[in-house]
Design a protein that fits this description.
Blueprint: E1 6-13, E2 28-30, E3 53-59, E4 62-73, E5 77-85, E6 94-101, E7 104-111, E8 117-121, E9 127-129, E10 134-137, E11 146-154, E12 163-172, E13 178-182, E14 195-199, E15 206-214, E16 227-233, E17 238-242, E18 248-253, E19 256-264, E20 267-276, E21 280-286, E22 289-293, E23 297-303, E24 308-315, E25 320-327, E26 331-339, E27 344-349, E28 353-357, E29 362-367, E30 370-379, E31 385-389, E32 392-399, E33 404-410, E34 412-417, E35 424-427, E36 430-431, E37 438-440, E38 445-450, E39 453-458, E40 464-469, E41 472-478, E42 484-493, E43 496-506, E44 511-517, E45 524-534, E46 539-550, H1 562-603
Parallel strand pairs: 2-14, 15-21
Antiparallel strand pairs: 1-32, 3-4, 4-5, 5-11, 6-7, 6-12, 7-8, 8-9, 10-11, 12-13, 12-14, 15-18, 16-17, 16-19, 19-20, 22-23, 23-26, 24-25, 25-30, 26-29, 27-30, 28-29, 31-34, 32-33, 33-39, 34-38, 35-36, 35-39, 37-38, 40-41, 41-44, 42-43, 42-45, 45-46
Length: about 600
Amino acid sequence: MRKLGIIIVGLVLALMVSACTIAAEGGIKVPKTSVPVVVDGSLDMVSEWNGSAVVFWANPLDGTVIDTVYMLHNDTHYLFGAVLYDPDPVVDDSFELYVNWNNITYKYVLGEGSSTLELYNITDGEVALSSNGTGAMTASSPSQAWLYAEIAIPKDEWGIAPSVYVLLMHRHTFKLDVTSKYPEDANVSDPTTWLRVEFKEVLGQYKVSITFRDRDGNPIDYVADKSCAEIAFLNGTAFTTLTPVNSSIVVLLPPENYTLTFYVYAIPVFSTTLNVNENITATYTLNNLKHVVTAFGDVVGVVEVPGEIGCIHLNPEKQMGILITNSTEPVALRLYPRVSWNYTFVAVLNALNFTYNPFVRNLLAYAPSNFSGIMMIGAPEGYPVFYFSNGTVKGYVYSREMEELEAWVVNGTFKVYCNKAPFAITINGTALRRGADYTVDQFYVTTVNAGSGELRIYYRNPAKVELAVGSKVRIFIATPYTFNGKYTVEVYSEDKKVTSMTGDFRSAVPMTVIEVPLEGLEPGTYTIEVSVTDEDSKQTIGTASATYEVEKEVVGAPAVGWEYYAVMALILLVVIVALVATLRASHTIIREIRMRYVRRKTQN
C-alpha cells in the first residue's frame, strides 16, 4: 500500500475574488509630517510612515493581493512610499508616478532594485529631464514577494502646488507583462480622471484620537503596516484614509458627521459613525480581528463586517483552524500568517469560495450567511494547493512519495498550484486533454475544467513501457488511467533507419498490449526502438528498445509451411505408438515362455 501524505474530507467551494479598494471620489487629503523620512526603501511604518494617507488596489497577478501606496509631505518635499506584490525573483518591475499640476504632466519611473529616479515631461512629448528628487526600490527574492519603494520630490519641482492629480502605476514584465494602476478606472491621457491629492497643513480643527484593540483586548500594532482607517462623509465620499500610529489614529477634522471604517489587509472589520463638533477620544474593540502568537511566528485572522466572529481557533502547530461566524450575508475571511516554518494551506472546508496564494501564504475565503463554520486545513510546504475553485471539493489526498494528488470534486473549474507542472490529469480514470480541459500557466498554476468524480493530478509519469520482439513487435504499456495514445516503431540497421511504423490506440487499465508485424526484413541484426505518447496529455509515456536477429534461410531447402511439420509430427507419433505396442507384445511373449519353462522344470 502506498503512503499517503495527508487526507482531508469535507466540502470546499472556491471562487477567485478581487480585493476591495477604498473609494477616493473627491480625492484624498495628505497630512503633513515633521518626522524626517530617510529614502532608503525600508519603508519604516513605525517611526516614519505612520499616520500617512494611503490608497490600495488589487494586483492583477492575483486579485486577492493588494498594492499599497502611502503619502505624506513636509516643509520641503512630497513623499510617496509603496509596497508592491512581485512573486518572482527577477529584477523586472517598475513603479511609475504620474503627476499633473497647472496643465503640466510629469512621469517619474523607479525600477526594481534601483535608486535612479527617471523623470519625463509628458506635456512636451515625454522629454527626459533631470529630477532633484530621490528614490529607492528594493528587489524581490525567492523568500520575499514584496517590493518596497520610497520617493521624495522637492516641492519646487511641482511649483509648490497645494494640490495635484496623481496616477500610480505598477508594471510587471517577467513571464506576464501586466500593469496595474490607481485609480483603477483612470484614463492615462486624462488627468481629470486621476486621484486628486491635497497636501494639507492641518486637516481640521477638532482633534480625534481613537485607539483600537483586537477581540482579546490587545493592542493592534502587529497589523499597523497592513491596516488603515477610512474617514468618509455620510454620502460615501472619502475625506481621508490614514494608517494607524501603533494602535491609534490621531487626526484633526472639520466639524461634520463622518463614517469611520477600519480595514485590515483590505477587509473592513469595523465601522462606526463620528459626530465631530468637539475633540473626541475613544477606544473601540475590533471583535473581528484575531491574533495568534506561536513559537514559529504570528497568524492574523480577520472577518468582514457585518459578519461577527462567534468563535475562531487557529492552531498552526497542528496545521488547522476553525472559524464560526454569524452574519446576515456571506462575509470575507482573511488569514495572514507571518511564520517562518514550511507551511501552507491546501483546502478550506465548508467555505462558499476561497483563494489561497502560496507565494505570500495569504488566504481569502467567504463564509456562508447565518450561523456557519468553516475549517482551514494546512500541510507542509510543497504540497499541491487548491488555489481556486468554483466547484465543490469533497476530499484531498496527496502522496508525496508518488507525487500524485487525488481529490473528489463536483463539476467546476479548479486551479491547483504546485512547484512543478503536472504530467497528466484524469477524471474518473480518463485522461483530460491538455490545452482543452486544462492549462498550465507560467507560474505552474494548473486550471482544470472537470466534471464530477475522482480528480487525479500526476506530477510524475505513472506509466511504463516494455518491449518484446519476435516475428512481431509486442509493446506492453502499464498505466493507471485510460488515454488516447500513439506508438512509433522504428527499425535500424547499423544506425540507418530501415523502416518505421506508427499507429493510434486507446489504452486500457492496467495493461495494453500492441502487436506490430515485422515483415520484409533482410537477414541481419536490427535494433527496434519504440516510443509511446499520451496524446491527451501531450506527454511521452515511455520508450524502449531491443535487438532482433533475422537468420539466413538454408540454400536449396524446400519452403515448407506449418502443415508439413504437423503431418510429420503425426507420423512420428503413430510410429512411437506402434513401437510401444510392439515392445509391450514382445515383453508379454517372452514372459510367457519364461513362465512355461519354469513350470516344466518344476514338473520334472
